Amino acid sequence: MDRSADEPGQPTLLQGFDLRGPLPGGITAAATLPVARVLLETQVPHLDRLYDYLVPAELDATAVPGVRIRARFGGQELSGYLLERLAETDPGVKLQPLGKVVSTEIVLREDVLALCQAVAARYAGTVPDVIRSAIPPRMARVETEKTQDAVSAGTSVPDADPGTREPPSCLPAYDGGASYLQQLATGGSPRAVLTVIPNQPGGWPALITEAVRACRDSGRGALVVVPDARDLDRAAASLSAALGEADVARLSAEDGATSRYRAFLRIARGHAPVAVGTRSAAYAPVHDLGLVVLWEDQDSSHAEARAPYQHAREVLLLRAAQVGCALLVASSSRSAEAQRLVLTGWAPELMAPRAVLRAQAPRVTASSDSFEQERDPVLHAARLPRIAWSTAARALEHGPVLVQVARTGFLPAVRCERCREPARCTECAGPLALEHTHAVPGCRWCGRQAPGWTCQTCGGHQLRAAAIGADRTAEELGRAFPKVPVISATGEHPRLSVPSSPSLVVATPGAEPVAVGGYAAVLLLDGDRMLARDELRTGEEVLHRWLAAASLAKPSREGGVVVVAAADSDPVKALVRWDAAGFAERELGLRRDLGLPPAVRTAALSGPATAADAFAGALELHETVRLTGPVIEEDGVHRWLLFFPYGQGAQVTAELRRVKARASANRDPVVNVRVDAQGLL
Q: Are the C-beta atoms of 550 and 364 separated by less than 8 Å?
């Protein structure tokens, strides 16, 4: 850590006066510990370091570690955080007085700072960028609210799922689950990875609540991170019903800045021992943290969209290692990263006995089965095969049916009827789509309508569907089953639950409502289209979407059926066997052979050609690091890829930070650095 006076951008300096006496300008230093070590909120990589300031006597009582401050730096006043008070600074360093203490609330605890520093190091980022995710913006009015008022004014908690008022016992159904709970309740810190058994009473929220309640029995706090608002509603309702609303704080940016900051202060002040929220909640300052829980770690919502693009799973793994607390990674499926934790022994698996799983899971049928192929001569051309139609017809006699489709909208993509070429906008070349049967084609990119469209290839004027969305599917099913209500559930039009009465529920992946008592049948359409994406994680992601939807069906003993309309493939076989762990292990082995993530770590460098090439050339890397590129992208951007073993991770990211800081100090064009980015390959 360099705080020398010769460094560009250092604070305006005072000459070396005796800090025990009066200083120029009538300033008097604090009588004890007159030096404040400060982290400033700057986005400039080469200024990501700590600085020392003089603490004036009038700020002595309020300038305590963890508070927000403002200080002069490089001719302007910047915000930041006071990290510690010292008796003296480094020899030769001359100090400028601290500007002011913005608030007396301690918002940056020492353990959270250490976590932010570890995350910045792992992702080759800056500490201020990580803290921006960890600490919500200040709402001054909230700080003056009384504690009782703050709780009652918080975001209301939805009603818990049926059966979760008194959470049932879920974890003992897993091999090792009872021991895991016992260790939590007696102050232990076990780690575990599990794939949730479907149709347990209360569902996955009850399972997580059971783990949190065991941790609370030991007198410790707990932290739960979920991917989105739908899951947050269910988790918060279950936790609040079991532990009491006063003990649970909900952290989500979607709740609004005021509610989020109010919940953050309840946690920071020690009034709420349990925090539940989306990805930024991974940094929640829970007192005496005993357990961290992550639900659906493979969900892309867990990845931060801003630099340094950290993933909530890795943040919680770092936190569990630093604090020494318990860890639970739970999902309806299994990511390759979670399976790696199991295989390395870092987090053992809580396995569901096959007998229990067979009793709880629905029966899964694939349209690619040889028996079905013989009975359905037009199977290859049908989007909804015969087995799916007949299953839906039977299931609708005694319950709702869920139909999962790949795309939202009506006809999200169309093509020329004559030559089959995709229909494109003449202004921006974006794909044309139809919003309903009699709609004018419109561009999905720029919104421009295309009346009288003409194919640029053959001159044709007629359009046909290239992809069918949820709205068109709902319309078709409504005509096929005219006496059954059709419900649409998408990200734009969410629906959290549906009744147990017969209905057709058409939903996109991730937006499936929960049916009271479970779905009589689940139809998984567009499987081949979903698996056709040429990405490294396509099979893993599609299997996760299928398992998440299939888990909503009733167990097979109650007639629950799942039909997947897709050609024979490894994900289809894994779904039929209900074996997410086996699929993840095979995927991980294949990627280990090919040297691909998560068997190895990755980094991507992208920017203007000259700057990106110079950045890559300046890296001093170990011989085990594989550097490939450049790939020339749009607008002349060059992209370089690094592949490196986990053992070299700290060295590689430190080198990336060094070169990035040097380029920043030289005012070179910005090169974007993304470490372990999802969707990279």
A: yes
CA–CA separation, 263 vs 159, rounded Å? 19
Cα 543 from Cα 334, distance rounded (Å): 9
Q: Beta strand pairing status for 401-404 and 521-524?
A: parallel
Concatenating the DSSP letter of every residue in 152-172 gives HTSPPPPPPPTT-SSPPP-GG
Residue 120 · residue 93 · CB < 8 Å: no
What pLDDT, on the 0 to 100 scale, is given for residue 422?
85
Strands (E), 168-240: 191-195, 221-225
Between the alpha carbon of residue 272 and those of residues 268, 281, 426, the distances in Å are 8, 13, 56
User: Distance from CA of residue 563 to its chain's centroid?
Assistant: 29
Joined tokens for residue 244: 């009491």
Maximum pairwise Cα distance, the chain: 95
Residues 458 and 63: their CA atoms lie apart, in Å, by 74
Residue with token string 């990589």: 45
Residue 250: count of CB within 10 angstroms of its CB: 29
- Tell me the C-alpha distance between 488 and 504, whole Å: 8
Integer angstrom CA distances of residue 34 from 13, 94, 345, 479: 16, 13, 48, 78
Torsions phi, psi of 576, nearest 5? Answer: -60, -40
Residues in the chain: 681
Q: Which two tokens stand for residue 205?
A: 């929220």
Question: Does this model's pTM top 0.85?
Answer: yes
Say how far apart CA 653 and CA 675 lie, in whole Å. 8
CA distance 316 to 561: 36
Please tell me the number of Cα atoms within 13 Å of 368 on its side-chain side. 17
Q: Position of tokens 């706090």?
A: 221
| Residue 168 confidence class, pLDDT cut points 50, 70, 90 | low
Token pair 């990501």 is found at 48
CB 210 within 8 A of CB 192: no
Tell me the one-letter amino acid at 412.
P
pLDDT digits (tens, 9 = 90+) for 386-413: 888 899 999 999 999 999 988 776 667 7
Q: Distance of CA 376 to CAs 224, 390, 634, Å?
A: 47, 12, 46
- Summarize pLDDT for 303-332 with one digit per residue, the tens: 999 999 999 999 999 999 999 999 999 999
Q: How far are the Cα atoms of 135, 253, 264 from residue 228, in angstroms, in the given order?
A: 19, 10, 18
User: Which residues in 252-303 belong to E strands, given as ranges?
Assistant: 274-277, 289-295
For helices 336-343 and 580-594, what crossing angle results, to 10°? 90
| CB burial readout 69-91, b (16+ within 10 A) else e | bbbebeeeebebbbbebeeebee
Q: CA Rg, the chain, in Å?
A: 28
pLDDT exceeds cutoff 80 at 89: yes
Q: Which two tokens stand for residue 470?
A: 């949820």
- Asked whether 401 and 478 are in contact (CB, 8 A), the reply is no
Distance CA 123, CA 307 (A): 9
